[in-house]
Amino acid sequence: ASRPTPNYLSGLNPEQADAVESIEGPVLVLAGAGTGKTRVLTTRIAHILNLGLAYPSQILSVTFTNKAAREMKERVSVLVGGAVEGMPWLGTFHSIGVKLLRRHAELVGLRSDFTILDTDDVVRLCKQLIQAEGIDDKRWPARQFAQMIDGWKNKGLGPAEIPEGDSRGFAHGKGRALYTAYQERLQTLNAADFGDLLCLPIRMFRAHPDVLKEYQQKFRFILVDEYQDTNTAQYMWLRLLAQRTAPERPNICCVGDDDQSIYGWRGAEVENILRFDKDFPGAKVIRLERNYRSTEHILGAAGHLIAHNEGRLGKTLFTEQSDPDHERVQVHAAWDSEEEARAVGEEIEQAQNKGRALNNMAILVRASFQMREFEERFVTLGLNYRVIGGPRFYERQEIRDAMAFFRVVSQPADDLAFERIVNVPKRGLGEAAVRQVHDVARGRGVPMLAAARDLILTDELKPRPRKSLTDVVEMFTRWQSMLETTPGHELAETILEESGYTEMWQNDRSADAPTRLENLKELVETISGFESMRAFLEHVALVMDKDNNPDLDAVSIMTLHSAKGLEFETVFLPGWEEGLFPHQRALDEGGRSGLEEERRLAYVGLTRAKLFCHIWFVSNRRIHGLWQSTLPSRFLDELPEAHVEVADIDTGYGGYGRGGSFGGQSGGPYGASRFDRAEPFSGNYNTPGWKRAQANKTDAARDNWGTRSGPSVERIAYGESG
Ligand code: ATP
Ligand code: MG
């Protein structure tokens, strides 16, 4: 007791210090955003090391992302002064799973050099199995089955354990047999999928109690961040490792926030956090209530919003960062997504001029298709940006596929593009046929498309591939003839339709298919802003050339889902409209749970901001390819007046800015919004009357210009009518 308080403890508040110093027995830190949960975990590691209670290799700590793992390592080494000699067991569930499996592969029937399959590999494998069973894979798509397997694995269920109903649910009762065959194939291939990285260690531990025991003894301390988003398999895995025989108690410390549970759609079980003290009897539950991240306005707004959820534990949060100079949460309106991106870009430039670093700013979107508009705008402005947690728009699979079609049409010598899509969607052009085309092309020194044209006139190909290749050649010939005469976006639409590419994703029942379709529509829409298909392709080549240097000062663009745990001085939250956020899929579900998960996502978004938080909504957005008038998100209604300011709308783009489309009483079909910057925020525009006005407005908008594309046209149309 006479020892001086180590440096790293002195900055903590009493509850945080308690959480750090309660090293014996199970501890749950249940606390709201920005209260220092992650900081408690890192300090706890430092403390354990400092007291010499364990070697770094005896601490198991689990983070949600690899980025978070890296940050945690850095933070620990700062705290203990000097580099931590390896924290080999600090990582995500998956990375730790891989490590365990490489060591003990033989116990689960693999070799230690097993490969890890990505989603595409998995789908291909499923398809082979489905076809081998003689099942129609149009009716029972491989992607859907891959998704089912993933769902079972998230629950820790092997083929023998899946519910009878689930098995019956695929291909008339073939679910279980296919799953069994799939696992057998993986063994033969010496491969594991992502779900296996969780499930196989569990199986191994169960089958080999001696190995389990070894790890139970090894991991003297277990720490878990973002516990609210663990799924059942992860939970089982932790329970096994944390098991102790009484009177010994597990030294497990989990931190989380039920209000930030946002991965329910991927199998996360918020119940895991709610029943912690049942699973670990005698657990100490610590609540942290002081938020160190955000201003009183940001916190006030987030707290008021999340209070609209029913299924929650409820927590108190306060901040001592109160200052009359603090900016309230700003709500901005824009005409459409293009203007939204333009205005956000301007704000960023202004902030930059005031000396604020781009690294301290983030744009958090609900759906990945929203990113494209910002990326384009930033390229135009020469603003550095990085997309976190996913490929940039033009690097996505469906966009690359579509672009490959466009490239062949406008540059018939582009063999790479031709090869990419000649058999997409599948048209029975196997490797053999493609190789034949290739050989002819090489032999004669002509592009593959030209070679294909020759080849179909011979009888060198078997009848079926010959027919398919003929179709392909004819399609490209037709599209090429349209190139000079048809507007780029119309041609793009024709190509995606006639090639069957759009249909391929429409028939696809996997969870990401709707996103891909959204992205494709976004792509077509983008092309409409260009003079021609060629001009568009040139533009993309330039965008793609932009380098992605990690040391660059750059604005981050990411989805709300991947922003968990992060913080930024300034946060932009665009697209707060009904149907986008909350997302239509959650609304269609009807029940409370989908909507509540959306609201938690909004809470996560708001609470990423330290000083400035700017929310945007637009009045016109393309939804399912059509320009539609949109309703402001209900979440805007749920923000408290005291902490929110409806910002001045001064876009400098014609009459709909000041006193224009958002002017309360100014009339016109678009004039019903109460987002008139002159009026105080009264928070009641969600009244039935207002909604009716909005509904009428949408109809009027459709009649006027609903099917026309391109924002510039609408602006003029509106300017005339308003
Ligand atoms: P989230 O729920 O978003 O993951 P969190 O609870 O993990 O948040 P942290 O990221 O650990 O919160 O902390 C939020 C911010 O507050 C960080 O910048 C952290 O350094 C700071 N912070 C936490 N505790 C203290 C403290 N006692 N004194 C000063 N700053 C603190
Ligand atoms: Mg955290």
From TrEMBL:
> Record-annotated residues binding ATP?
31-38
Q: Where is this region: Disordered?
A: 686-722
What CDD domains does the annotation carry?
DEXQc_UvrD, SF1_C_UvrD
Q: Where is the UvrD-like helicase C-terminal domain?
A: 296-565
| Alphabetical UniProt keywords | ATP-binding, DNA-binding, Helicase, Hydrolase, Isomerase, Nucleotide-binding
Q: Which residues form the UvrD-like helicase ATP-binding domain?
A: 10-295
Catalysed reaction(s) here are: ATP + H2O = ADP + phosphate + H(+); Couples ATP hydrolysis with the unwinding of duplex DNA by translocating in the 3'-5' direction
Note one Pfam family from the annotation.
UvrD-helicase
UniProt entry tagged with the keyword Flavoprotein: no
Instruction: Write the Enzyme Commission number(s) for this entry.
Output: 5.6.2.4
Q: Which family does it belong to?
A: Belongs to the helicase family. UvrD subfamily.
Under PANTHER family, the record lists: ATP-DEPENDENT DNA HELICASE SRS2 (PTHR11070:SF2), UVRD / RECB / PCRA DNA HELICASE FAMILY MEMBER (PTHR11070)
Q: What protein does this entry describe?
A: DNA 3'-5' helicase
Q: What is the originating organism of this protein?
A: Hoeflea ulvae
